[in-house]
C-alpha cells in the first residue's frame, strides 16, 4: 500500500509539511484538473471564490481564464506562497482565513448583483458538511458551487427518496439548490492519497425557492429529529414535535419512515409547527 507523503513542495520549491488537522490532500492528476475546470468553464468577467486552493492546482487555470478570483486558504504557509505567486495579478486576492469564519458578503463590493458568485473547491473531508451548511446562508449571492467531496457525501447530497443515503444533508441542500453528481475521482489523484474515493458535485441555488418554508430552522429541526432515528416510523421519531392527529391532518401517513417522504412533506410538517427554532 502506498504510504502518505509527509510533505509536499510549494511553487517556490520549498518543502511544506502536510497538516492533518486541515485535512490536506492535494489534487495533482492533470486529467482530473482539466475535467473539473471544463465542468466549471470559468470566463473573463466572472467572479470566482476558490476554497482551499492549497498548492494552486486549480488556481492557475482559474487565473488564466481572466475571471476575478478570491481564494480562501487557512494554511498560512500555503496562503503566503500563493500571495507571492500572484502578487502581480490584479484580479487575484488571497485571504488567509478559515472559510467557516469568512464573510462571503465582503466579496460583493464591486458592482456584483444577484447570484453572481461562483464557488469552487476541494473541501477537506473533515469539515465538508459544516462548510456546505455555512455557504447555504449566502445562497442569494451564489450562482453555482462545484466541489470535490468524499464520494459518500456526494451520494448523500444527490440521493433520492427511498435511497439509503437519503437524509437531512441532502434534503437541506436540495431546499436551496439543484444538485448534480458530475463524476468520481480516484484516491490516486491526490497526494497524500486518501483512504476514500472522491467525487465532483455541482450545486446550483434556485432562483426562487420551489418550496419556501415559513421557518428554515424549524425545517432543519424536523429533518434532524426524523433522521436521527431513521428506522422508526414518523409516529415515533417525531412524537416530541408533532402529534399523529396533526400528521394525519396534513395527509401524511404517520406509519411511514422518514426516508419515504419528499421534501414537500417535511416542509408541510415544518409549517404546521410553531417552535420558533432558528438555523
Structural class: alpha/beta
Tell me the distance between the termini.
43 Å
Radius of gyration: 21 Å
**Fraction of helical residues:** 25-40%
Approximate strand percentage: 15-25%
Number of helices: 10
Gross geometry: elongated
Q: What can you tell me about this protein's structure?
A:
This protein has 279 residues and is α/β, with parallel strands linked by helices. Helices cover 30% and strands 21% of the residues. A seven-stranded mixed sheet has the order 6-5-4-7-8-11-9. A hairpin with a 5-residue loop joins strand 1 and strand 2 (15-17). Helix 4 (128-136) packs parallel to helix 6 (168-176) and helix 7 packs across helix 10. The longest helix is centred in the last third of the chain and has 12 residues, at 216-227. The N and C termini lie far apart (43 Å). The relative contact order is 0.11.
Describe the protein's topology.
Blueprint: E1 7-9, E2 15-17, E3 26-27, H1 30-40, E4 47-51, H2 59-64, E5 68-73, H3 76-85, E6 92-96, E7 117-122, H4 128-136, E8 142-150, H5 151-158, H6 168-176, E9 177-185, E10 190-191, E11 198-205, H7 216-227, H8 234-237, H9 244-249, H10 263-272
Parallel strand pairs: 4-5, 4-7, 5-6, 7-8
Antiparallel strand pairs: 1-2, 3-10, 8-11, 9-11
Protein traits:
279 residues, alpha/beta, 7-stranded mixed sheet, 11 strands, disordered C terminus
Task: Give a nutshell description of this structure.
The chain is α/β, with parallel strands linked by helices.
